[in-house]
Request: fold
Amino acid sequence: MSVFGELRRRTVFRMSVAEVVVAWLDIITLRRDGFHVDQRWTDGGHWRGGAVSRAGVALAVALLCSVSGGLLRAQDLPPTNTFTGDPEAIRVGMGVYRLRCADCHGMDAQGVRGPDLTQLWASGRTDQGVFRTITQGISGTTMRPVYRIRDSEVWQLIAYLRSIATPTRTEPTGDRERGEQLFRASCSACHQVNAVGGRLGPDLSRIGAARSVEALVRQIRGDFRKQVDPSFAPTTLTTASGQRVQGVKKNEDLFSIQIIDMSGRIQGFEKDTLQALDVSTGSVMPVYTTKLLSDAALEDLVSYLVTLRGFNARVQ
Reply:
């Protein structure tokens, strides 16, 4: 394959500026089609020897123009998704989703670490907006841009998400003020809302935008145990002095572990100093059956939770 063929192959995929630079430096070291660059650098980072041919300069310019043109095209999106309703496109989109999205959003797209995607269109999002979120990400959140994906695959992915989306958003009919009081009494010890509350569970400041009413009900009633965010895995350890510490795992590597204990303090431990360490795949959240939380009280609680939509101009 020629250098220009290699260039075309690589620029089929969406690349960041950093990846463009790395790809170009990689390509120009190839000795193909008579193209050769001998690059040497001094310790101070200055050019010491070798020269880039005119072909190399032309290649770099062509690459940058190609990428910048791709970025411009990404802003000029088609008014409609031509893959919507196409069974074959939806099947391909499902495969893309399971490979690239399911780890955060769940196999059913109803959310794990990431938000519920079945509510996108019911909450007013558009195909074009979803396209930009997938390809550009959302700054300041865990939603990173998806690289090395063709535009056609993004549109097929969107067609799949549309095929499983709920047509309307269900609104609960409970008392929101009673729900807020219930939340403060039963939930705030573990969950924060607008920086107030505990840290043993996920921050719920935007839970109303991230989860449907149905998903909230399932999770409160215990269905959350099917998929638990590993960032909040229950952890029990015994120190060298015999002290037993319980909490949720926040960070872990081969040599150490960091947890938030039940009082909300962050503690770090070297693994080789521990007598015992157990990280569970369960959850510290209790299952709120009807004996602990009546259906009426649950309706009140969910009515409050759906109002927690935060404010993030990048997402809105």
Q: What stands out?
A: The CA atoms of residues 221 and 289 lie 6 Å apart.
